[in-house]
Amino acid sequence: MLEEKQNRKKIQSEIGPNGEIKKVGSSHLDQPTSQIDLLDNILKQITGTVSIKSQTDIADLKDIQSIELSKYPDIELSPDLDKKISELQIIANSIEKKNVDIGNISVQDLSQFKVNYRNTLNSSQLTAVLITEKPVLVIAGAGSGKTRVIVHRVSYLIEKGIDAQSILLLTFTRKASREMLERVETLLQDKRVGNVTGGTFHSFAAFILRKYSNMLNLPPNFTIIDASDSEDIIDLIRTELKFNTKDKKFPRKSRIHDIISYSRNKNTTISSIVHEQYTGLIDYIPDIELIYNGYSKYKVLSKILDFDDLMEILRDSLRDNIRFRENLQNHYQYVMVDEFQDTNIVQKEIVDFISEKHRRIMVVGDDSQSIYAFRGANYENILRFPETYPECVVVKIEENYRSNQKILDFTNCIIDNAKIGYKKKLFTKNLRQSTPIIKRAYGQQEEAAFIVDRIMELSEQNIPLNEIAVLNRADWHNRYIQAEMSKRGIPYVVVGGFRFNERMHIKDIISYLRITYNPADAVAWHRILKYIGGVGQVTAGSVINDFRNNDDPFSFETFKQRKFYSELFMLGKMLAQARQPEYTLTQKIEVIKDYYSPILKAREDDYFIRMQDVEVLIDLSKKYKDLDKFLSDFALDPPSKRVADQTKPLIDEGEEEGKVTISTVHSAKGLEWYAVFIPHALEGMFPSNRATNIEEMEEERRLFYVACSRAKEELYITFPRNIYSYDAFFYLPSRFLVEISKEKYIFNKD
Fold this sequence. Notes:
The chain is α/β, with parallel strands linked by helices and 750 residues long. The protein has 34 helices and 18 strands. The strands form four sheets. A seven-stranded parallel β-sheet has the order 12-13-11-14-15-10-18. A six-stranded parallel β-sheet has the order 4-3-7-8-2-9, sandwiched between helices. It has a three-stranded antiparallel β-sheet with strand order 1-17-16, with helices on one face. Helix 8 (146-159) packs across helix 9 (174-188) and helix 25 crosses helix 26 (522-529). The radius of gyration is 29 Å and the shape is globular.
């Protein structure tokens, strides 16, 4: 009996937090003939007599609804979290009282306006456009036309006679703001639209901090570094402090950067982030804090700002500098924020400081699509908006223009089961009917074969391949699918890989440019000095210290007796020439290209292809007059893969047209396809087994909702009987599927 209890205790310790069966060695189990038998044997030993086949009927699953939710592990809910969720539910439920009377708004006389707002917008959209003098929360469901609302609101404000310069539009991509304002200009045929300030939070911050640099005691020629530059500085400090040799387990530069950036986005301490999410690094907290201290000082000396600095400095300046805050409040009297559910704490505070005087703020978003907690986004921002602005009105936009009603019925069910959030029910006038299909396959190969079979059928029905997407919870979930597509010759593109601005040769050219603008930029200096023979890290540090004390940063006279002086001299000569104020931006890059080409040619076999990328960069530069604007835009919103229509060769990246898209769900937000496939819908995979508390599980639910709501006409959710990963065994269908009424889908089993 004692032996039986010990054996049972050991086996139970191998059950993961989401009910997955952890890998069990042969020391206490006979070798199974299949994964199902492995699971069967484990459960027999745990329960004494009952096998998996009779206990859950997973192997002969006839309907997902036959699985009881009690089979799934409970999700952690601490007293503090329970209290917070209760608060948010009260706020969410109270918004029904704030819903504006659409009837009263819709009868307004709009005959004097050029744009026919009433015919162009549905009643909810029109209401959101017409309320301009008080705070407005627009809850815009997936595919409900939120961009149309923002476009027409900007148009309406300008038609009302509001000065376009007093309008601020904040988005999460520069492309989004540019397209919105272009649409406004097309609507109005009015050049005043160009005076609207539109852009991302980061580009807006860069513009404002440079404009008011004297008032804020900032160097006007600061340069902006990206995440990889930040990691390089951290690695440099980590090495100088000898932490790289201190302990093999000491976190690498990318992990340290993630911890620092996440703590800043969450507006909390490094210590609290490590205790919450990186418990294995608790002993290193003082060392990470020391690195952060050195990192901060390094940036000040080099006159550089990282992405988080832009947000923090703007927020702190608005909070502490009254004259600066009043300037921005008086200038920007109408504020609009897109995708408000994706803002972090610091971004929300920026918006609140600017809006607090006139309170003419409209935020648009969908709490059901808040999926970026991993980068600091705070879903509470949109839920607590009525708490911050108690006089606000709420407009819910629920008519969907993307998906058919069968898909909407399915996605509505997903979000109806949410523990947190505003209640909404999407509907459509799209009469086409295609019920979502849930497919259980025997194994991963069979799952991939089903998906590819259906893709081929869709192609034969003249559905373009670029209207089809496979959306994964994690990158590795698509490995069998990629193999199957390759075997059958179906072209596909995997979203991800190196972006244009991350390519080595492009970063080199940009580094030379940054130095001509900000000679104190030590990150850029370290990058280009490594191409000078005989200049290592220590010597590079000496060169950088020398020019900081030299009136002419490009003379290098101190090093005249060193072997590498002639190369330094040529570098200095090139930089001095490229820095000439009479040179256009394109001419500056041409000067750098002439110097850099021989260096690249000696180092890279694919020199010719890489130089074509440099030509693309030159083409991009022709659109800019100012170097500072070019450098800011390039750092904050880098060019996409298809950066120039007339220039085809971009390394390792082909055109995406005519190809199936394979993407993570996070990368697919805001996009849509005729048909969407979501593989590996097993508990522990989607939702991820990393979701251990209710907040994390609810984010997984929202992620699943986003994936499903990308589909316009056909939606397929698939899973194999089981997946045996390197340390776990997953066999239960996703809990999100079990919660959905069986009338909302068709279930096909292997």
